[in-house]
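2024-03-11 09:14:02 INFO worker-7 job=invfold-0412 stage=load source=structure_tokens
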């Protein structure tokens, strides 16, 4: 199932929309009470798509409303996931009743509205891990980098068809998506005669019995010709209680007047970057992923971040500006949780009376000297019982051209080494041995290739680079050698093959977190041999491992989506009414029910 967010765009503002559009919007809110309906306008788009304000982005261009809407929908689905519906789509059946059955591949669209188009784009559902959406978006960006206009009204659909013809992985995925014809939702075409015509008994049954899940309508009719007894009028009145009054919520969500979200104290989102000069690019990506999901859900939240330099959804609060009594709960994202560390003592322990959730964290074994567990519920990547995937891989990303190395160009190798990991103990961090091994492997590669190395620093302060600049280094590499877990994650985000070397004696985070992925190029330093690692590097540079890499990326993303889905379950649990223990119990029970399916 995709994230429970429904995206609708009406650029001019809902107050200016025709009656049929307002009826469509109401149908989604009425039929899907467990979902967040985000109604966006030209003025609110930047809240969800910051690139709208970037002069270099296609989202900042002056394009036709139809073209702009196509670009917006693919950006929203790639960044957040969820369900996109055109403002003239009418919901007849709750999404929870049917959508899950057609989402086996993390994507769904109604198919074949015409022989020349493989799918309709007025209803699109996608998980954040959808390869189809990711590739479709990449083609959209390539398409608009080369032109200012396109007279082809169906350019968006035709790009999907091009991807299907040229990309084997893309076509295989779409072929496996369960199919539902686009003909049914178009039942009331031609609109000028059918939609404005007198409703029949059969028409009433189709609507009242929800024989199809969605109707595709239009606002491009003569509204002065609407008359009593028409399908148009019936749809505008269908399902509305005489005393109900729906209005756009101030947050941008379409919600009933009784909505009480604003009365709930906000949730505080914390991370290593909550402390000055702390945090890595991996930490930032993880908190961006969580903040994006909370933003899409309409959650009332703030993030405590020491620097103003980082793009994170939601309102920023400085470390000296918050009080624990002002918040319903604390969500801490990413990194090792270390006893006596300032992040525990200064941030987490500052909230003794509110419930706390740990996401994508690493916990030491209970017998370890650095063990501490200050949370009520954990979605931990390590040490929490069931393992939840790290979510950094799902952070919003920019489209960057894929590097294709020419025959006489140097081989570019990214070197991403962690340095000492003192939290494991002085005898366990074999970082010097790891550095020596990677140096020898690079020397071996130089016997066959001209090699250029890029040393990539992850620490946000020490790197001296903006986060997007750090990630851009990965996209310029042909191969990555890393002893950092998030080095592997950023390589995957940029579809770059990587070799991971775990420098912790006996195996640490890197082995633990990559062992289930199926990627074979992961080595523990005690067992890694120079010739073996060199052969692996050559195999990745010269061999055809791309399909395997894409499979690993898809697997990792899908597991990360499960982590965010579990967090969504926790966030929708009723906030504490009186006592923390009662909410802790509800959190744990809600998560247990979700895990049982």
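2024-03-11 09:14:09 INFO worker-7 stage=emit residues=597
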């Amino acid at each position: 199932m995709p994230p429970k967010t429904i995206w609708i765009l009406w650029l001019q503002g809902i107050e200016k929309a025709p009656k049929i559009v307002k009826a469509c919007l109401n149908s989604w809110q009425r039929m899907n009470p467990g979902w967040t309906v985000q109604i966006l306008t030209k003025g609110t788009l930047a809240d969800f798509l910051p690139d709208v304000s970037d002069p270099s982005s296609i989202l900042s261009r002056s394009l036709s409303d139809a073209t702009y809407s196509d670009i917006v929908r693919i950006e929203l689905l790639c960044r957040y996931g969820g369900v996109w519906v055109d403002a003239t789509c009418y919901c007849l059946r709750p999404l929870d009743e049917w959508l899950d059955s057609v989402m086996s591949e993390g994507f769904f669209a109604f198919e074949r509205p015409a022989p020349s188009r493989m799918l309709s784009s007025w209803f699109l559902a996608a998980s954040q891990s959808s390869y189809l959406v990711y590739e479709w978006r990449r083609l959209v960006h390539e398409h608009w980098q080369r032109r200012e206009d396109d007279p082809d009204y169906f350019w968006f659909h035709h790009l999907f068809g091009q991807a299907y013809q040229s990309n084997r992985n893309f076509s295989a995925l779409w072929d496996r998506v369960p199919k539902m014809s686009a003909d049914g939702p178009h039942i009331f075409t031609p609109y000028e005669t059918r939609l404005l015509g007198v409703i029949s008994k059969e028409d009433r049954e189709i609507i009242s019995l929800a024989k199809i899940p969605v109707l595709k309508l239009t606002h491009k009719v003569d509204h002065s010709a609407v008359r009593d007894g028409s399908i148009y009028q019936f749809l505008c009145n269908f399902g509305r209680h005489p005393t109900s009054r729906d209005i756009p919520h101030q947050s941008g969500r379409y919600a009933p007047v009784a909505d009480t979200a604003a009365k709930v104290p906000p949730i505080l989102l914390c991370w290593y970057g909550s402390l000055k000069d702390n945090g890595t690019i991996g930490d930032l990506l993880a908190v961006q992923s969580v903040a994006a999901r909370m933003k899409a859900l309409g959650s009332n939240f703030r993030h405590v971040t020491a620097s103003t330099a980082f793009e994170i959804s939601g309102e920023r609060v400085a470390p000296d500006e918050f009080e624990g009594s002002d918040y319903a709960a604390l969500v801490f994202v990413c990194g090792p949780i270390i006893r006596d560390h300032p992040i525990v003592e200064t941030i987490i322990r500052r909230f003794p009376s509110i419930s706390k959730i740990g996401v994508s964290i690493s916990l030491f074994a209970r017998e370890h000297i650095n063990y501490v567990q200050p949370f009520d519920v954990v979605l931990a990547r390590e040490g929490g019982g069931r393992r939840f995937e790290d979510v950094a891989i799902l952070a919003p990303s920019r489209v960057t051209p894929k590097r294709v190395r020419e025959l006489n160009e140097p081989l570019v190798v990214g070197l991403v080494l962690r340095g000492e990991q003192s939290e494991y103990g002085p005898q366990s961090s074999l970082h010097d041995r790891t550095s020596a091994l990677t140096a020898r492997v690079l020397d071996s590669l130089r016997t066959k290739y001209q090699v250029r190395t890029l040393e990539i620093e992850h620490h946000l302060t020490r790197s001296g680079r903006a986060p997007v600049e750090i990630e851009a280094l990965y996209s310029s590499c042909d191969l990555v050698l890393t002893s950092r877990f998030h080095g592997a994650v950023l390589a995957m985000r940029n579809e770059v093959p990587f070799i991971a070397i775990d420098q912790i004696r006996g195996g640490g985070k890197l082995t633990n977190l990559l062992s289930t992925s199926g990627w074979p190029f992961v080595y523990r330093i005690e067992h890694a041999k120079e010739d073996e690692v060199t052969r692996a590097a050559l195999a990745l540079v010269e061999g055809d491992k791309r399909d395997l890499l894409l499979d690993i990326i898809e697997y990792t993303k899908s597991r990360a989506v499960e982590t965010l889905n579990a967090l969504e379950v926790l966030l929708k649990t009723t906030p504490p009414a009186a006592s923390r223990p009662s909410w802790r119990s509800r959190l744990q029970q809600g998560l247990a029910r979700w895990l049982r399916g």
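2024-03-11 09:14:09 INFO worker-7 stage=report msg="The first strand starts at residue 5 and ends at 9."
2024-03-11 09:14:10 INFO worker-7 job finished
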